[in-house]
Specification:
3 helices; alpha+beta; 107 residues; single chain
Length: 107
């Protein structure tokens, strides 16, 4: 059964800079104590998306920024299947045209 959960773009960075990013669906399992302080539904979706990046082994650590939610329909138009649920480098993003300008710098 296909999940109806929305998709998110997660971008990871630390003091050294960009560590990678990923498009993940917000259907991860929250562990006890992981509930967000903000009880809005979007906060729970984002927490599930971050958890999903851990479950998939594609969260390199550091601070996380997000864009979303994005519907499956929108994502499927923009991002090929092989670029979903994987950690993408700056070079990967430049190649597929996501969140990187013509100089290869993150937008």
């Amino acid at each position: 059964m296909e999940s109806k959960a929305p998709w998110y773009w997660l971008s990871f960075a630390d003091d050294t800079g960009f560590r990678g990013g990923c498009y993940v669906q917000a259907d991860g399992n929250l562990l006890p104590g992981m509930e967000p302080v903000n009880k809005a539904p979007e906060a729970f979706e984002l927490a599930r998306a971050i958890r999903k990046s851990h479950e998939l082994g594609i969260n390199p650590g550091g601070s996380v920024m997000s864009i979303g939610p994005v519907t499956s329909e929108e994502l499927f138009k923009m991002v090929p299947p092989e670029q979903r649920n994987v950690l993408l480098s700056k070079a990967d993003l430049k190649r597929i045209g996501g969140f990187v300008n013509e100089k290869g710098e993150l937008k």
